[in-house]
UniProtKB/TrEMBL annotation:
Organism listed in the record: Nonomuraea wenchangensis
Domain CBM2: 258-363
Name the UniProt record assigns to this protein: Cellulose binding domain-containing protein
Taxonomic classification: Bacteria, Bacillati, Actinomycetota, Actinomycetes, Streptosporangiales
TM region(s), chain numbering: none
GO MF term list: cellulase activity; polysaccharide binding
Length: 363
């Protein structure tokens, strides 16, 4: 009886252990509630931070391993004439010595690969609270990976709710990246150049140099400075629950800190036509930005929820969740330096949806 009883105990322990293993997958998406908690997504490609730097009130974010997060709790209630409570964000690059993988940052803005650096984001906004939804793009005179950057902070405000404004004062307006923007400038130990969109948007896809070149032209940034991180998130003053980054991407620049070279590539998409319920994306131009011939290329991009690709040409497309992978066809995979080719596709979408795919990245 003792022998049988021992085997029953061992069996029960093994069953319990198996249950524990099943209940705790290695890639479970965490909920971050500590003030400065962080985690990585997409195998370290991006870092997600809770970053409650300006308040002691509670905030939690639910991290999406596909590359985003949702603010699930935010008890903030700060005066709107001061700093925000926090900046929950997702980023590529280095922020206070925590670096993502594969970003090639820091990178000097004079590098030959800098012009191909591209980012995209898709966001969801609640109907209450006081907040802004913004990129935070950091530059330093040195290739800094830790501590406070002292060159320029370029903020790109996609949307805002409530009576809030950026650092400093408005100095003009400009048309960039498919929108019209108020331009604000202030200095708080480093230059803060803020671009506030006059008509809100929930998504963007642009090259980093679009806004940097404007800031350089105004005398607030320098081409010799280094891009250290590209961040997208939210600054809440009051509330903030329901703010969400649905998807985020950063790509390009194949060379790293001092220069280009190698076998990098760039993908740029054009919306040829669209209508209620669908669209055609053509051309998606793939360019070899490296110094050697590229044999074979792959382009990935994000397909909005509810969209379905119905046809494609000059590439083979596959879909996994919200990620679309396009691989070269048999006759257009070899690209000489500075050479290019293109492909296209057609898709359907819900009738009330005006989104198109974003976040094109080439490898």
């Amino acid at each position: 009886m003792r022998y049988a009883h021992t085997h029953l105990l061992i069996g029960a322990l093994l069953a319990l252990l198996a249950g524990c293993l099943v209940a705790a997958p290695a890639q479970a998406a965490p909920v971050l509630c500590d003030k400065y908690a962080s985690t990585t997504v997409q195998n370290g490609r991006y870092v997600v931070i809770n970053n409650v730097w300006g308040a002691d009130t509670a905030q939690c974010i639910d991290v999406n391993q596909n590359g985003g997060f949702t603010v699930t709790q935010a008890a903030h209630n700060k005066p709107t004439n001061g700093a925000p409570a926090s900046y929950p964000a997702i980023y590529a690059g280095c922020h206070y010595a925590t670096c993502s993988t594969g970003s090639n940052l820091p990178m000097q803005a004079s590098s030959s690969g800098f012009g191909s650096l591209r980012t995209s984001v898709s966001m969801t906004y609640p109907g209450s609270g006081v907040w802004d939804a913004a990129y935070d793009i950091w530059f330093d005179p040195t290739p800094r990976k830790d501590g406070q950057n002292t060159g320029a902070e370029i903020m790109v405000w996609l949307n805002r709710m409530g009576s809030i404004q950026p650092v400093g004062s408005q100095i003009g307006t400009v048309s960039l990246a498919g929108g019209t923007w108020q331009v604000w400038y202030g200095n708080i130990g480093w230059n803060v150049i803020s671009y506030v969109r006059t008509s809100p948007t929930a998504s963007m896809d642009f090259t980093i140099d679009t806004f940097l070149s404007d800031a350089i032209g105004r005398g607030y940034a320098q081409r010799s400075w280094y891009l250290t991180s590209v961040q997208a998130g939210f600054e809440p003053w009051v509330g903030g629950a329901g703010l969400a980054v649905n998807s985020f991407s950063f790509s390009g620049g194949g060379g790293g800190g001092g220069g280009g070279g190698g076998g990098g590539c760039r993908a740029a998409a054009t919306t040829q036509s669209q209508w209620q319920g669908g669209y055609v994306i053509q051309p998606v131009t793939v360019t070899n930005t490296g110094s050697s011939t590229k044999n074979g290329w792959t382009v990935t991009f994000t397909l909005p929820a509810g969209h379905t690709i119905t046809g494609s040409w000059n590439a083979t497309l596959s879909v996994s969740g919200s990620t679309v992978t396009a691989r070269n066809a048999s006759g257009n995979g070899t690209l000489a330096p500075n050479g290019s080719t293109s492909f296209g596709f057609q898709a359907t979408r819900p009738g009330s949806d005006s989104q198109v795919p974003s976040g094109y990245a080439c490898a």
